[in-house]
Design a protein that fits this description.
Blueprint (H helix, E strand, L loop, with lengths): L1 H31 L1 H5 L1 H7 L2 H4 L3 H6 L1 H5 L3 H20 L16 H8 L4 E5 L2 E6 L4 E5 L5 E6 L9 H8 L4 E5 L2 E8 L2 E8 L7 E5 L11
Antiparallel strand pairs: 1-2, 2-3, 3-4, 4-8, 5-6, 6-7, 7-8
Helix pairs in contact: 7-9
């Protein structure tokens, strides 16, 4: 009986050891497995970062070329519109910057509202009164009726003869007075005169002229 117990105990020791060895190996393998699982996660997140950076740059540069080509065309059309508006006012005997019209208003009315002129002198078929602040000169006859309204606005100085002709066409008459070339355009009962000195080649002033009122006599 003792012999059998010793024999049974002898076999139980290696059997236990044999069971423990694979368990320890499996434990080692399970402890090692989580290390490679963490490595793929940063690799996937790194690929998303560079894709967001380049997208805003092309959209910012896109509008830049679109504004350049239309510059000169817009300037020409603006000049043409302004000169045509000058001719439209001339058909009513008016210039921009003056509420008083040729053939309609009397110079007495101008003095009542604007005060005495800065300069007044006899010229041609009547008297001419200049208001420096308004850059307006009125020509009036002995009956005080206004027959000529002139504007010396600085905005006129940007136009040359080519610009004027492109906007208004060829003038009905071209005359030279000293160094001034005068382009005359019909405007209903009035004439629009565009005066360009040779020294500058740019418009110096315009005149809205009423031929029927340019008489050196008393009204009535």
């Amino acid at each position: 009986m003792k012999h059998n117990q010793q024999k049974r105990g002898f076999y139980s020791i290696p059997l236990t050891a044999a069971l423990l060895i694979p368990l320890s190996l499996s434990a080692c393998s399970s402890n090692a497995s989580p290390q490679p699982e963490a490595s793929p996660t940063p690799a996937a997140s790194a690929t998303t970062a560079p894709t967001a950076a380049p997208t805003p740059s092309p959209s910012e540069t896109a509008p830049a070329p679109s504004t350049a080509p239309g510059g000169t065309g817009n300037t020409d059309s603006k000049a043409s519109a302004e000169l045509k508006s000058i001719l439209a006012l001339a058909r009513k005997g008016e210039v921009k910057g003056s509420e008083f019209a040729a053939s309609t208003d009397l110079f007495d009315e101008v003095e009542q509202k604007w005060g005495k002129p800065d300069k007044q002198e006899s010229a041609g078929k009547g008297m001419y009164a200049t208001y420096s602040k308004q850059k307006i000169t009125f020509g009036f006859n002995k009956g005080m009726k206004i027959f000529d309204v002139r504007s010396y606005a600085a905005s006129l100085n940007q136009y040359n003869a080519t610009t004027v002709k492109q906007a208004l066409g060829e003038p009905a008459d071209t005359t030279v007075n000293g160094e001034d070339t005068i382009y005359t355009y019909p405007a209903g009962d009035f004439q629009l005169k565009v005066v360009i000195p040779e020294s500058t080649g740019l418009v110096d002033h315009i005149s809205v002229y009423s031929p029927q009122d340019a008489k050196n006599n008393m009204a009535g």
